[in-house]
Amino acid sequence: MNKRNFLARCAQSLLSTLLITLFLIPAQAQGERPRTDVILPPGPTPPLTNDPKAEQILERALKALGGDAYANVRSTTSRGYYTLFKDGVSGLPMTFVDYIIYPDRERTEFKGAGVKVIQTNTGDTGWLYDGEAKTLNDMTKEQVEDFRFAMRTNIDYLLRGFWRKEGAKLSYVGRREAGVGRRNETIRLTYPDGLAVEFEFGAQDGLPSKVIYKKKGKEGAETAEEDRFAQFVTIEGVMMPFIVDHYRDGVQSSRISYQSVEINRPINESLFTRPANAKAVK
Asked: The pTM is what?
């Protein structure tokens, strides 16, 4: 595989992992829409009754993450390193910068092997710049669908309640082992189309610990995906995990290591506008 293709694949992997794991991405603002292929019965839909225990765990997590400070985030600028793993062995880290302006703009750019790659999403549209090939392209339909799937499995999508508009059901699973002397409270979010996502929160501190779900590939093969959060840091009253490890079928496939996160700092909106051509990319 040549360097350009490798970096392009890394860009897609980085984007998906950041979307799944960065707490401060408001999923609804990033263009998530209810599925149009779900057939609902005629007439008004009765309100769903969610498990009170699961709702309590969700409320506790919101408070643990900062309460109002968490809810009042309007923009973030994050920097750090992204590392791919192969067969559980880490590769060379790449640097990344991630800009977000709510309600619907995100730009992720990173460098690896001396090449810069930029991917920007605005709602359910976006563009990708390949610095080595000097190409600028719109996101494909498949990339947009991957983005939407990442939103529905994002812990922020759960915490901010956007799933309620889709008619998803929240239930309590129970406690699970989480290390010596530690337990996690587990809840499950089930969408009308059958997608089920499990979220684990520390029984003692209420902080998010894991996100677990299954994903189908292009060939129809299903993989078990899992995000694990660690090293929480308080940024202006908001608790954020500075280490996010992703596992596929029980084997680590990537790590995000944040070096800094700025909240509600001014960001130039021109960063999200599609340039006229590759030469105009800055």
From this structure: 0.80
